[in-house]
Amino acid sequence: MDKKVGQRIFSSANKAYIGFGANLPYVKLAPADTIICAKSALMAKGVRVLRFSRLWESPAWPDPTEPAYVNAVAEVVTTLPPFMLLRTMRGIERQFGRRRSYRNAPRTLDLDLLSYENHCLRTVHLTLPHPGIESRAFVLLPLQDIAPDWQLPGSGKTMDRLVQSLSEESRNSVSPLNDDKMC
Predict the structure, then answer these.
(1) 62: burial class by Cβ within 10 Å (0-12, 13-18, 19+)?
(2) Within a domain: residue 181?
(3) 47-71 pLDDT, tens per residue?
(4) 153: cis peptide before it, omega within 30°?
(5) What is the number of structural domains in the chain?
(6) Crossing angle (nearest 10°) for helices 82-95 and 31-44
(7) Disulfide engineering: 21 pairs with which of 5, 41, 110, 161, CB 3.0-4.6 Å?
(8) Spatial contact of 107 and 98, defined as CB atoms under 8 Å apart
(9) Helix (H, G, I), strand (E, B), or coil: what is residue 151?
(10) Is 114:133 a contact under the CB 8 Å cutoff?
């Protein structure tokens, strides 16, 4: 059954991509463990994870002296419209101790709705595709792991083109983690 939200109609199975990031421990969980647990929390909310990238490490930004980030991307299918999915993601962030103290602050968990079907949307609370996706190696490289044929909604830019447009320094600053937490 289709759901109407505003003037858009969302089907019962919508593909979305979600970015995961963490650079602070939560209770006794290291950032990599928090990401794996957040994936499970998302699934417990009825969001089906189709594919999950390797875990990647990237330097903190804008202050590289902060702890490094662990990042991943999930391809999901959901019946939730984008605003409800975002609300669910914010609830999971809070569940894992996320506090929004200031922009780009270190965090226990960051979940970003990267894209939702091929929708292009700009509101006060949600922009799709996620702004800045084109310049973020810590998003594009994990996304390339699971969706090498993905294209940026609204521009049609291919994954190869997006990754090639990153600076060599940016690409080299992100690396896969060598651990057993792969999903």
Answers:
(1) exposed
(2) no
(3) 999 999 999 999 998 889 999 999 9
(4) no
(5) 1
(6) 130
(7) 110
(8) yes
(9) strand
(10) yes
- C-alpha–C-alpha distance, residues 178 and 183, integer Å: 13
What is the Cα–Cα distance from 70 to 176, expressed in whole angstroms?
9
Q: Is residue 35 part of a domain?
A: yes
Q: CB under 8 Å to 81, separation ≥6 — which residues? A: 3, 5, 8, 10, 14
CATH number at residue 159: 3.30.70.560
- Show the low-confidence residues of the chain (pLDDT under 50): 1-2, 4-7, 182-183
Residue holding tokens 């995961």?
A: 20
Residue 148 lies in a domain: yes
Alpha-carbon distance of 91 to 95, in angstroms, equals 6
Write down the pTM of the prediction: 0.90
Query: How do residues 85-98 score in pLDDT, each as one tens digit?
Result: 999 999 999 999 99
Return the structure tokens found at 91.
């609830």
* Exposure string for 1-32, b = 16+ CB within 10 A, e = fewer: eeeeeeeeebeeebebbbbbbbbbebeebebb
